[in-house]
């Protein structure tokens, strides 16, 4: 079982290594933890207040497809060959990579295993995948440039960190934050639709 320190150190080495930073190399490095780590890396651009260059929707689509693998009961992450070559485009020295690692280390210093037995339950992966799928969908349908995708994305990152560190309270915090963000997206979206209907 990987410890918190091993996970963060390995992620930093992966971000700062000279090799390709692809989804395939991430899966090879983290093995059974690859789902959680992939969700963190893929959704962090939407969660962090940094310019993303408009790539977040593509990353959200990949996240939803990976979450579906958990929903159908896969225990290990499978990627098509084309996806394995997908460059994450993050480096440890860059602004995004350094911010991501700083936030992960801040969380792990305050996290410790809580109710670990729940993460060992057979259905925990299905629940994890379902929550990630719903929250990612909320982030995906959020109006462009509204910032409404931030809370669902933060929720996914915290939820994935909770699973990674086997901290149930951290996972619950991620679900609550992400759920509030999803409700906000739904509330604002319904009002926008109603406004357009009134204008027509």
What is the percentage of strand-forming residues?
Answer: under 5%
Order of helices and strands: HHHHHHHHHH
The average pLDDT is: 82
Q: Over all CA atoms, what is the radius of gyration? A: 17 Å
What is the number of E strands? 0
Classify the helix fraction into a percent range: over 70%
Main sheet properties: none
Please tell me what the overall shape is: globular
Low-confidence stretches: none
- What's the number of structural domains? 1
Could you say which structural class the secondary elements and strand pairing correspond to? mainly alpha
Query: Alpha-carbon distance between the termini?
Result: 58 Å
Number of helices: 10
Structural commentary:
- α8 packs parallel to α10.
- The radius of gyration is 17 Å and the shape is globular.
- The N and C termini lie far apart (58 Å).
- It is mainly alpha-helical and 200 residues long.
- The chain has one domain.
- The protein contains 10 helices and no strands.
- Helices cover 70% and strands 0% of the residues.
- The protein has helices at 4-16, 23-30, 34-47, 56-71, 81-84, 95-110, 116-119, 124-141, 150-164, 168-199.
From the structure above, extract its key features.
200 residues
Structure summarized in a few sentences:
This protein is mainly alpha-helical and 200 residues long. Helix content is 70%, strand content 0%. It contains 10 helices and no strands.
């Amino acid at each position: 079982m990987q410890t918190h320190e091993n996970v963060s150190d390995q992620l930093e080495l992966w971000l700062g290594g000279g090799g390709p930073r692809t989804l395939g190399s991430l899966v090879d490095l983290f093995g059974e933890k690859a789902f959680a780590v992939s969700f963190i890396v893929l959704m962090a651009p939407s969660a962090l207040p940094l310019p993303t260059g408009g790539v977040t929707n593509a990353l959200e689509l990949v996240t939803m497809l990976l979450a579906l693998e958990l929903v159908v009961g896969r225990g290990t992450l499978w990627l098509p060959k084309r996806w394995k070559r997908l460059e994450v485009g993050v480096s440890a020295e860059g602004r995004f990579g350094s911010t991501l690692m700083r936030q992960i280390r801040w969380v792990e210093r305050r996290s410790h295993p809580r109710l670990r037995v729940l993460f060992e339950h057979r259905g925990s992966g299905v629940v994890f995948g379902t929550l990630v799928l719903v929250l990612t969908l909320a982030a995906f349908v959020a109006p462009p440039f509204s910032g409404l995708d931030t809370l669902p994305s933060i929720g996914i990152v915290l939820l994935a960190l909770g699973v990674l560190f086997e901290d149930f309270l951290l996972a619950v915090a991620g679900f609550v934050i992400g759920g509030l963000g999803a409700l906000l997206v739904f509330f604002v979206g319904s009002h926008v639709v109603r406004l357009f209907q009134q204008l027509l």
